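User: Could you write out the 3D structure of this protein bound to S-adenosylmethionine? I've included everything you need below.
Assistant: Certainly. Input first, then the structure.
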Amino acid sequence: MITRHDWTQLEIETLLATPLMDLLWQAQQIHRAANPGYHVQLASLLSVRTGGCEEDCAYCPQSLHSSSAIDGHPDLEVEPVLARARAARDAGAHRFCMGWAWRDIRDGAPFEAMLAMVRGVRELGLEACVTAGMLSGSQAARLAQAGLTAYNHNLDTSPEHYDRIISTRTYEDRLQTLERVRAAGIQVCCGGIIGLGESGADRASLLRVLASLDPHPESVPINALVAVAGTPLEDRPAIDPLELVRMVATARILMPHSRVRLSAGREQLNREAQILCLLAGADSIFYGDTLLTTSNPAVEADRALLAAAGVRVEPAAALAP
Ligand code: SAM
Ligand code: DTB
Ligand code: SF4
């Protein structure tokens, strides 16, 4: 299987618009060749620092520019975070992802605590992922040294649609952080959101930029907007679930070896739509009752979903004490 980084806008728009049955068939063949046995990865998510963010991302309830009522607890400390990581591991998670509602990482005590959390999560035998906004080269190097597996930093939408969604940073800022993460030897987790009022061409353009990264991001989260009251996008209509299926299938075809994570928005999908996304090539989900500030399907419901689909989960994380 050839891995390409030169997909054109037209090729991607054509894929996104392919008759669904043909698109699914193509995606399935590529997926099964790249992921023999088809294992799904379970990633657990925890918000360490919630709310109060200076950025104005129109979808995000954690922005200071939104009037969303979020449960703004004080920043979590190292021990409670590690207790949550242990519980996630015991429930079967493979990766533990931690979020900070920051524009960028600043040096100091909170960053030292982040490093301690990363070390602790790794000692539990879990993969560790952090999402905390922009970072410097030296911060990336320190995270790598602490054992960080992956850094999540989404491009969210196309370069063309970006300034209708966020005005406080640029696409170039995002790409620069991604380069620093890569240069430090940390895996890149980078994807986007559909349902932000973007066109089909915008979706293709986002996928084009993701697939042009060389190497491809190791994981690509595909989110459907969770329209939260108090954000500028609160009245956005829900997307047609088949559009999410198309987005997942196209991401799978463009980036055969990346993990495509079916991320936010699963609560709005019925069981059958989620199974179609898995069939289209999603091989990871967020697992646990909450995302950052919004809810996610219950663990029992997800266990039942994976069993109904006959999906094998990745072998459990190495059991450290
Ligand atoms: N502040 C950091 C940043 O923006 O990179 C990290 C946390 S931020 C909440 C992580 C990602 O969550 C965003 O890039 C966006 O893709 C996703 N996200 C936030 N709010 C969302 C929503 N309402 N619906 C879907 N995805 C959302
Ligand atoms: C990603 O792509 N989606 C996750 C994770 N990476 C950090 C976040 C989804 C957030 C959904 C809205 C919320 O719960 O606040
Ligand atoms: Fe801040 Fe991240 Fe939310 Fe944007 S998505 S407002 S950067 S927490």
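The chain has one domain: 9-31+40-308.
User: Perfect, thank you.
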